Amino acid sequence: MTAPSSSTRVLFVCIENANRSQMAQAFARLHGGPTVEAHSAGSNPSGQINAKAVEAMRELGYDLNTHESKSLADIPDVEYDVVVSMGCGDACPSVRAVRREDWNIPDPKEFSPERFREVRDLIEAKVKDLLAGLRIQRGAV
Questions:
Q1: Other C-beta atoms within 10 Å of 96: how many?
Q2: pLDDT tens digits, residue range 60-116?
Q3: Which residue of 41, 65, 88, 107 is most buried, as measured by CB atoms within 10 A?
Q4: What is the rounded distance in angstroms from the CA atom of residue 39 to the CA atom of residue 47?
Q5: Catalytic residue among 26, 92, 123, 134
Q6: pLDDT digit string, tens, across residues 12-63
Q7: Which of 28, 56, 84, 88 is catalytic?
């Protein structure tokens, strides 16, 4: 077990860790700055990031090729400030968390590029709201 952190630890989980959770992790890194430690994982990871997710994030200047699709066993064994499941019904009983949220976000892997971008933008908005709320909780406003 790791020592307490001054960072806000956030974990995004879905089944394949190839689309939604990867984009959420990227947005948490983009908008959270150095005080946010963002992770993502899957209960049954695909082993690769979806090319559509890579392209959708590239449009915003973020390179998802630097990410890896990983399992819950691959993430740090720490208590997270918040664990977010991405609407895939995944329960993460082995992950310690102060708070848990379930975002009902459709899996965009079969969507057209336009609908994929809509999901990407929804994830970005939800991550921004989450981070704003966490900053208020920690008194960092």
A1: 13
A2: 999 999 999 999 999 999 999 999 998 766 556 678 899 999 998 999 999 999 999
A3: 41
A4: 16
A5: 92
A6: 998 899 999 999 999 999 999 898 999 999 988 999 999 999 999 999 999 9
A7: 88
> If residue 22 lies in a helix (H) or strand (E), which one and from where to where?
helix 20-32
DSSP 2: P
Cα separations in angstroms, 139 against 3, 33, 125, 132: 21, 16, 21, 11
Residue 28 known to be catalytic = no
- Catalytic site includes residue 130: no
d(CA 9, CA 36): 6
* Residue 92 falls in the annotated catalytic set: yes
